[in-house]
Amino acid sequence: MKFIDVLNKTDFSKISSISEHASDLEVKSILSKEKITFEDYIILLSETAVNYLEEMARKAQMITQKFFGKTILLYAPIYLSNECDNSCIYCGFNQKVSGKRISLSVSEVIKEADFLYDRGFRHILLVSGEKKGIVSIAYLKEIVSTLHKKFESISIEIFPLEENEYKELFSVGVDGITIYQEVYDKEIYKKVHPAGPKSDYEFRLATPERAGRVGFYRINIGALLGLGEFQKEAACVGLHASYLRKKFWKSQISISFPRIQGSGANFKPINPISDKQLVQMLCALRLFLPQAGLVLSTRESGTFRDNLISLGTTQMSAESKTSPGGYLNCNQEGEQFNVSDKRSVEEVSQAIKLKGYEPVFKDWDKALTQS
Ligand code: SF4
């Protein structure tokens, strides 16, 4: 069964009712369980469960240490191009937003990557807007074939591809993909993606499945927090990750928590998500999916990220620039969104150590899986 079928069969009115009627007794009983069900997860996302956030956090910490130890994997994005054929109304790369458009040549990307290599990064994420004529498969293959020799892990966060295209990239060394559905609520999806290839909800939704069939090691999903209603979106993310985990058990399924930040699009969140809700979602996901990677980007402030280190986070970006050429060309013109945590990789590493955790640059888990 495809995930779209799972989603179509999901009774969201029942989910709302479970959440609305969640009792203290139910939350307490779930917190004493070894394994929790999807229904339990919904209860942990309820308003009643907010009163048990400390207990949830303690349990999330214990589970994370059991499966991941006290380590945080650090990575950095490289933006290839901010040209885009889409009109996502929340994004600074939206084709309707005026501003400088930059697409890096292969050699410019290699230079950005060399800079990050010298800063200690071994895990990079190639990011771009949807401009297939510029960010072509041939262009990506050329970049990855070179970078693969130096970097331990190369993931892509670009537009959805066909399965045969993923196969081509996988064959030259891409080992992971990040693809956010942005919003699972179909009505809101339509509203915020009015034009361009991204308006195809189902093609995007099936992307992690196409990637999973190819065999990518890391599949990272998420909802752009601030678009859909909190509980419904968090429920869908949990359902999606759980589906992928069962179907592609050899891949590491990860979840990111991208919360809408200021950008050239001047977009205001439709359903703003509070810090407390983000923490609740992260802890509830950890309890529901003990072995999922949980990723926090520099969209969030340094203080907030530091506080989440011990609660379930497994990966963090650091020193990120969100414009093409942003590392070597300090001019931040053309960035996708405003970075909140502007600390250097040394400062982020130090903050991780102060929490009693170890910053890591090489994914030992992956090395062991593939040996
Ligand atoms: S979110 Fe992605 S697809 Fe949409 S406008 Fe921005 S870069 Fe383009």
Automatic annotation (TrEMBL):
Keyword Ribosomal protein: no
Keywords attached to this entry: 4Fe-4S, Iron, Iron-sulfur, Metal-binding, S-adenosyl-L-methionine
Domain annotation Radical SAM core: ranges: 70-305
Alphabetical list of InterPro entries matching this protein: Aldolase_TIM (IPR013785), BATS_dom (IPR010722), Elp3/MiaA/NifB-like_rSAM (IPR006638), rSAM (IPR007197), rSAM_sf (IPR058240), ThiH (IPR012726), ThiH/NoCL/HydG-like (IPR034428)
One BP annotation, GO: thiamine biosynthetic process
Record's keyword annotation contains Magnesium: no
Pfam family, one: BATS
Name of the protein described by the UniProt record: Thiamine biosynthesis protein ThiH
